[in-house]
Structures are given as structure tokens and as C-alpha cells.
């Protein structure tokens, strides 16, 4: 049952991230090929890097449904993105959902592949953030990852909550995943709505040791 939930979560996460890539393509007025590339980069980029690091079969090569999802979303939004009002708002909130879901998914896949809890958490964060980073860099957009408001931290919290809950409690993995996704999404939502940020380094003069 849990493996089915992971597969569904994976496909939904890919679809959501593919949609964000397609929305960026629409804002950049790309052609259909551009839509497909942006949807694919965003939808499967993070998971690809995770699988390469883990030295496991790359998920979308083993199961081509993921490519089909990305390309289907790209085609649909190529024709209908113009009907989506306030596309940037939709992009930001869709990205927040995908961020939280992919962080948990990446952590679960990494741990089930034999990674230690700490490595699983880091790979969960990478799974959640790398596709969006690739999307923004290719499109020439300021990466969400590098903005002041909390982004990668939300993914890190999602992955951490999931791993700690699964490893140290009797809560069912499905429920643990839902809790972790909810917490990560709430943090990202707070960052979007209230501009939550972490303390930033402030440049200051170095000490004079003479």
C-alpha cells in the first residue's frame, strides 16, 4: 500500500513541477518544444540527480510514464496557459506543493535505497530543489532557491520531519509523509505570504591584526 502511495506521490509531484516549468515557458513565450523541455527539466531534474548520486536506475528511464506526464502537461499548458489568470501566483503555489512533496519522496527513496538518515534528508532536499533551480536558470529567471524568503529550508524541514518520524515513532509511513508535507508546505506558504526569511550574513570589515 505504501509503495503505491509513493508512486502516486511521485507522479503527482512530477506533474506539479512539470506544470511550473510549463508556466515559466508560457511567461517566456516559448514554442511547444520549449514547453516540453521546461516541463521535463523541472519535473524530473531533481529525481534524476538523486538517482545518479545513489547509483540506482534513473526512475524515468525505468518507468517512462514520468516522461509522458511531463510532455502531456507541457502540451496542455501550451494551449491553455493563456486562460490561467495570474500565472506567476499559480507558479509559486504549485512550486510550493511540489517542493514539500518531492522532499519527502526523495528522502523515502534515498532511505529505502540504503542511504543513512542524514544522507536521505540531504537527497530529499536535492530532489525537491534541483528541478526548480534548473527551470529558473534555463529560463533566465531569478532562481527561487536564491531569493531571500525561505525555500530550500522548507524542503529540508519536510525531509527531516519525515525521516525522524518514520525512524523514531510507530506512525504509519503514509501518515508521516502527509504530516511532513503539510509542515513543509506551511513553512513555504508562510514565506510566500509573510516574507519569512532566515538571518542573513552582513558584510563587515575584517579585523586588523597589526
UniProtKB/TrEMBL annotation:
It holds the Pfam family Gly_transporter. It is a multi-pass membrane protein. Residues 8-81, 93-165 form the Glycine transporter domain. This is Trimeric intracellular cation channel family protein. Its main location: membrane. It is found in: Cell membrane. It comes from Sneathiella litorea. Belongs to the UPF0126 family. GO terms for cellular component: plasma membrane. It comes from the Bacteria. InterPro entries: Gly_transporter.
Amino acid at each position: 500500500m505504501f509503495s503505491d502511495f509513493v508512486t502516486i506521490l511521485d507522479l503527482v509531484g512530477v506533474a506539479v513541477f512539470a506544470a511550473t516549468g510549463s508556466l515559466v515557458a508560457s511567461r517566456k513565450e516559448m514554442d511547444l518544444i520549449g514547453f516540453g523541455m521546461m516541463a521535463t527539466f523541472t519535473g524530473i531534474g531533481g529525481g534524476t540527480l538523486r538517482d545518479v548520486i545513489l547509483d540506482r536506475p534513473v526512475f524515468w528511464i525505468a518507468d517512462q510514464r514520468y516522461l509522458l506526464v511531463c510532455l502531456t502537461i507541457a502540451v496542455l499548458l501550451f494551449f491553455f496557459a493563456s486562460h490561467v489568470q495570474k500565472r506567476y501566483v499559480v507558479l509559486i503555489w504549485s512550486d510550493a506543493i511540489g517542493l514539500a512533496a518531492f522532499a519527502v519522496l526523495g528522502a523515502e527513496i534515498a532511505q529505502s535505497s540504503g542511504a543513512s538518515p542524514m544522507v536521505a534528508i540531504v537527497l530529499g532536499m536535492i530532489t525537491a530543489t534541483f528541478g526548480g533551480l534548473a527551470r529558473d536558470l534555463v529560463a533566465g529567471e531569478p532562481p527561487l532557491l536564491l531569493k531571500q524568503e525561505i525555500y530550500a529550508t522548507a524542503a529540508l524541514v519536510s525531509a527531516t520531519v519525515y525521516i525522524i518520524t518514520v525512524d523514531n515513532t510507530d506512525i504509519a509511513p503514509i501518515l508521516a509523509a502527509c504530516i511532513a508535507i503539510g509542515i513543509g508546505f506551511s513553512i513555504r506558504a508562510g514565506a510566500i505570504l509573510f516574507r519569512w526569511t532566515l538571518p542573513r550574513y552582513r558584510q563587515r570589515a575584517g579585523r586588523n591584526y597589526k
